[in-house]
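#dry-run=false #mode=assembly
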Amino acid sequence: MSDTLFLILSVLTVAMALLVVLNKNAVNAAMCLLLSLAGLAGLFVLLDAPLLAFVLILVYAGAVVALFLFIIMLLDTTPGSFKPFKPLTIAAAVLGAALLGLGIWSLFGRAVLPDAPASVPVPTMKHHAEMLFTTYLLPVQVVGFLLLIAMLGVIVLSKKYTAPEDAK
Amino acid sequence: MMTPFLAAAPVYGLPSYLLVSALLFAIGFFGVLLRKNTLVIYMCLELMLLASTLALVAFSKFNGTLDGNVFVFFVLTIAAAEVAVGLAIIVALFRQRHTVQVEELNQLKH
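#status=ok
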């Protein structure tokens, strides 16, 4: 059952990610990103992380993709074509494909990876909260501060500047 | 010894999840290489980030710890902040140059 689910969800995730790249229309690409996120959230549930799946749907599907769609509608984007191939692009593509092949080969041929431990309880909200508020308390504070900085930065970035001679 | 790739009675373990993660990352990478709309390039960057979170969650589950899951929380938070700032930069750029196509954003080159 979970094997079938894994197959379906991973194929959905990867196929929709491919469509994000291949779609000429930016709005369609954002919609495909949404479906890919849904598949990824399903994979998180299969990996015993339903809380993360929930957060992923909330943050990404709820906020990030909506923001993308909003900006796409705000800016007048003509459906773009692909970049013309430059020698550097081809070199980077070949190098990337070679690295991917090497990674997959080492994953299935060489790597010594752990099997799933048998008797570990599914982590609940309580376990997450205990870790976040004990071991990772300082990072939580830092990340909160970073969110504040990002908010201020976005406000400054999106303000219209008045020229210096107008200011006086 | 090769682990069976898609064997008859498979139990999809850690390598399968890592394969999906690697494929997602590669798709995002090629998207950044091939597309010229800045917004789509940004979406592909997000795809690469999500691929790394999938690898983190998979490693966390198959090692029986929770640290990877907590790390994904931080990654998601940073990603949300990054998207907000990046899109604000794109909008500011669009106000200046009236385009979001990367090959027309070459002011620094000349």
